[in-house]
Fold each of these.
Amino acid sequence: MIRQLSFALVASMIAVSLASAQPPQVKPLRIAIAGLNHGHVTGFLRSAERRAADIVIVAVWDPEPALLAKYAKSNHFAESQLYTDLDKMLDAVKPEAVATFTDTYSHAGVVEACVPRHIPVMMEKPLAVDMKQARAIQQASQRYSTPVIVNYETTWYRSHGEIWTLLHDQKAAGDIRRMVAMDGHQGPREIHVQPEFFAWLSDPVRNGAGALFDFGCYGANLMTWMMDNQRPLKVTALTQTDKPGVYAHVDDEATVLLEYPKAQGVIEASWNWPVSRKDFEVYGATGYAIATGGDNLRLRLPGTQAEETRTPPALQPQEADSISYLIAVARGQLKPAGLSSLENNMIVIEILDAARESARTGRTITLER
């Protein structure tokens, strides 16, 4: 009998030891949605639904009751989750992070509501409509030591990660001499974006411009990253509106030239491409890399006889997509850096601001040193 009790005691102790050795179960990150008039919210909600073990949407805010009702119906949100007052939502549900899908002009207001409550914010690109708003966001983030990150689809492209490794870190093609970014599609109206999305994309106040801000930000973001957050010396831009009957108040075509001390950047942003594209080309002194979409990469490096096609390796799990990155940042596992960081995106807005002024005046804009 004593021997049986001894065996039972030992078994119990082993079970307790094994249980304590297991990692604690991590609860899903509690996220609130701020704004519904940015069309990218649809894709985010689909991703969130597939990743219920990682995140849970606890509340949704938008000032328009009709938009709230529309998304509540399609996403099965309860009435208690819906708010038309942002402050009330933040105080009532106390989310761990906020994912923002407003027009660009409203980004600053969301940040200024969230960061005093120490709630990290992720927003869709670009950061702001001008440098005044960008500085307000930066100052609020710094004052309350609360991260603000900017989400670009292209941040999560494996092809861009491989360009960074080869041409930036390894300098496999020598010094970077030229970068070309081509971003855009046939136009918001032409691809049938949601009416609420089109309404502000075609508004120069709420969008900052047209294609210049909507798609010019991608190239500015990537080039600033490749140049280690070095600000260009000069910015020259040309914008025009090829479809004034559709885009009466904003540009639908933009080309921006960036001058660096030893390199040039060319940003081609358009709502007139015959197809959707997000291409990025980087040329070094002795080779080049061309990314055409998320996983497509062509290379010509020293010692090779011809251009080759390469399948890029996967990104690190915490940096593979916007949800994983937001979770890591909100829980203090990663400090915002690179493409998503405020440091990079302050320069992006400085470039876009200068490009808008250059297009307006017909002059090259020299950035203050």
Note: The radius of gyration is 23 Å.
Amino acid sequence: MNFSSYRLVSTLLLAASLPSLAVSGDNVPTSRAGLPLEQTASRGIITRDPSTIVKCKGEFWVFYTGHGIPSFHSKDLVKWEPGPPVFLTAPQWIAAAVPENRDMNYWAPDVIHLGDQFLVYYAVSSFGKMTSAIGLATTPTLDPADPHYHWTDRGIVVQSREGGDFNAIDPSLFSDSNRSLWLAFGSYWSGIKLVQLDPKTGKQLNPDAPFSSLAYNKSIEASCLYKHNGYYYLFVNWGSCCRGVNSSYNIRVGRSRRVTGPYIDKDGVDMLKAGGTLFLSNKGPLFGPGHAGILIDKGKSWFTCDFEGDARMNGKATLAIMPLTWKSGWPEVNLVDQ
């Protein structure tokens, strides 16, 4: 299927699945509460496990869980249109590495712009299993109309197997101020792990080096690292996902002076000992926030995630973008009640 056909089909499917959005006199979409969408959390599009939002040629892009790693793009963070998936056919290595994944349903991607390439990391697994792998695909541009647009499969970055103590899903990229590159990942079992990557290849810098352990809780996943005023901040999810408005997902945070930890919450509890200050939970018709990301654009800071269940959209997961502020060294979001 070419991009034009894919875009037409995706647009029709999207239009059929979304609730109606009001249009004001100046054609600015508004929420059901009558507020401009840029003043509210939900963006009115279905995206489970959204990536960090990145910019290419003046457009914002987000990737999310689904067949072949689907995408949306926007010029203003308000109106979003479906874009092409990363993969139209499954990378060859997946059949052998994760044989139970047969439907090209790839999870929780993350994206970073590094040098002259965009790198998308994604998880291949099956529900509740440790036979998992984080893969990498790269492209010089996200613009499908650009003649240089082409995704290249780079293979496995991290892999886990049954009988181990970690699960290689939920990749999250972090580029430090010294240009070092890091991958945080993990779900349940022994918690959140960290490995250093080679910025030139996107693969592990030292495949024989042990992973760093960052955080643990009985239910934990969907990590995200961010640096602010000399501190590294680690966001994680506690609770259960994928239950719509019954999701118990909530986002916790701690901070450290080193990227490898220890990460300590507001009460002084190590996140490796089930510490984590509550950062975001249910709000109004939005339930189960998860998969944190941070976007800085034109001097503004935005916190991005999904809400696992939006009561106005048949309980489906929707993309949320909220102003991010800092108070006494800790992050806060301004979530307008819709």
Note: The two ends are 38 Å apart (CA to CA).
Amino acid sequence: MPEQLTRRQMIKALGLAGAGVSLAAVSGGNPLNAASEAIADTKAQPVPRRYWWVKNVDKITMEVDWKNYKRFSEWKTTRGSLKEYRGNAEDAKYLKLQKDNLLKWELENVPGYTTKDTALKNAVGYGRPPFQFMGPQTVSTPQDRGVPIYEGSPEESSRIITAALRHMGAATVGFVQLEPDSTRKLIYAEEPAPSKKPIFFENVDVGYEDEKKLVVPDKARWIIVFTIQMSTETMKYGPTQLGSLTTALTYTRMWTIVSQLHEFLRGLGYHSYGPSQFNGFSINPALATLAGLGEMSRLNRIITPEYGPMVRAVSIATDLPLAPTKPISFGVMDFCKDCKTCAEICPSGALSMDREPSWEGKGPWNNGGAHKAWYEDSVKCRNYWNTCGTNCGTCFSSCPYAVDDEASMHKIIKGTIASTTMFNSLLVAADRKAFPATTGQPMKNPEDWWKDTNLAEMGIDTRRGGRNI
């Protein structure tokens, strides 16, 4: 049976029915040879093999000035300070608007906002374990069991952590070594409101927390960062309650895995440190980029080669020595310069339309000045969330990298983007023509989702991710 290019029929739009060979040539010759070389090159790596068009690099594709980079306080984001940024009156207005709209649309049975949509969104957010700085600390340690602690090389340890996290449900896994003058600065200076506890590094054997601070020992020099795959399908029903359950379910899975990872490390005989509040410990997209899980993008979020932007990332620190993974490049930063799809379709106009990333942030919610990014106006984004009643997700679902199949032409196109910028404008135009998106409207009818009883488990496809190369 022929492959169905369910995502944006690029061949037809481009008129490239016979151009596969030409694109393959531009992207580095025979894709099968390139794939073989990539697989051979990664046999010793602690991470799963990648697509042939993903290259390991020495530096991330985003420019960073570590000398001027300062640790950021999480409570300065719009998660913690939105009321201050938009003022008391505006804040009250938007919160009332959200409450009124959700009730009105549920009473009117608006698709995506019906009682069944609301009930499911609320249900999948249930079951998240409590946030604990050092994890639950309930499993027995090797000392408790009367056996030596686990000992292996950093490469071996990275491999077993990756295997364990994959089994727990992580999508991709990477590792970063913390250095005082650079990567350690990606640990928040202060955790979220309301506690706003400062996070310190101290020369102690085991970290701790008290009423005034969280302490990470200097010896906890390794970061484990992993992604959780989100449902590409349900995100297409945003902005609605049905679309919003995409992130609700992902976070439920994520925080469960964080607790399990803490316990796994404890069971090996080591300590770990992570969020004690929602999204509280570290700047995860930056750490994921440094660990080679993806590249930063116009979304100001990570785009991965395996899942596009359809992931959430989370990190914890540990004193188990690990082998750092290298950053990667597959053309995202250059493609985003020409694409702008997410910014053009953003209902709030929150995303940057500038061709080049900037050193300058849009407001105090951005940690600007020391890294170049397409900074977003987070207040505009949050105002729209209140207006539509839920988180939006349009920028994620409209991204050309948010594909949900394994068609060979998609691989050729991504290989081309990774190798040359020559066709970027043409590919963007084809994407728009083949699948025009509508601002502020779901890509699919939410009522149709409820008619499908053959849905993928948790809405995700675990066959994706290059494991069937």
Note: Confidence is low (pLDDT under 50) at residues 1-45.
Amino acid sequence: MQRTRQTWLLPLLIIVLHALQADAQTPVDSLKPNYINPTQYEVGGIDFVGLKRHKKDVLLSIIGLRVGDKVEVPSEKLADIIDYLWKQNLFSDIKLNVDSIVEGKIYLAFQVEEIAYQAGPVKLNGISRAEANKLSTKLKPYATGTISQQHILSITTLITNYYKDKGYYNVFVSTRQLPAKVDTNMVQLVADITTGPRVKINSIDIVGNRAVADTKLRRVMKDTKERRWFNIFKTSKYNAEAYTKDKQRIIDYYNQLGHRDAEVVKDSVYLFSPKRLNISITIDEHKVYYYGNITWVGNTKYSTDTLNRVLGIKPGEVYDKSKLNEALYMNAAGNDITSLYMDNGYLFFNVTPVETGLNGDSINLEMHIYEGKPATIGGISIKGNTRTQDHVILREVYTKPGQLFKRSDIILSQQALIRLGYFNPEALQVNPIPNPANGTVDIEYVVEEKPTDQIQLSGGIAAGKIVGTLSLVMNNFSFKSIGKKDRWQPLLLAMGSE
């Protein structure tokens, strides 16, 4: 806790007066502090009492006071030194004592109490090991440092918010300090956690909606549901992350209806009872917009009529930005503007829609196109295959060196590699590596092989005899690998069907 200079000057003067009385046996009345003409002394010695972890030499080097310096009592200089020491956040208590005054020399001693220092990660009690591991990762920035009230508050707030995000609104966190080492100020900080019951959603109140009914908006929220008897397939447990996504789903739905500027202007989550909470959402729908004139700039490969036909959006339709993005970039069937160009080699193509103005409730769009030059395929590389030879993969893909780049060939190649059954479909990647300088693109296929071979052992008793069978199923086998020692680990590492 910081103290004002005036708070420190008065105790200092009292201490000095007592020292003077003991040294010179002069009546105290005659040694009253003179603020107009302070008494000057030579510093005869400076000591720090109570240090356990910090070094006296280091502290002496930073306070700006040396033996032999002249110092006035009272003085702003001594008050500044004490203020400076407080600001270092090293001590929980500081007192300045005068040990003695001998022949005009004053001997000062700083009596300090060091702030405890955390000796490693926070120990978490009351929760599972899995949860403790997750929390420990988040608490890494607080594994060391002085144990100040702010330090403890930051830790308890992080833990509390972590569980609130999971729906535990009754979480309670208390901290305690255990000595870590003898004769040091190092401590082990322990956090005792009581999560309490996980709360469920009692009600979701929506305000401000006129174009869309409450029930429809609640259905749009996929993972945030009220507690109702008929919600047998959806949990009503509250999850902050899911709630944030569901608020965005509401806005996305409004955008599809032409409410381009719709927004959640206010929302609150509050406890209704120890095990139930309510959610209140206030929406500003704003007005509905429509598509106005759509023009194209920079297109030389395809005519405006062709581009308009592929775009599939006509003036007067409700303005839906998700539909616009799908028509420009990511139609699942490949019937979009980007696919049109990229299936004809225009790898460096891009299109940017620009809103050029409003005509009442209609939005005019100008499509800025950069076509670039058609690209041909350069090299093709494979990464991640240890069992399957490159040529087995290369014969399946539709991309060949020297051919015109086509995005549709990339998609067909992915599907062909998945059909092989050798690779993990979720880990399969195709990375085009453009070389704009020479107009080529290298294609990199990244695969993750999955085990396909099986060893089956079965047994039984028949006619008093033990009968057993052993079968080996190898789905990815190569006769060419039989004579290669490095392919047996311990069974033959196949190289794909020959």
Note: Residues 1-33, 487-495 have pLDDT under 50 and may be disordered.
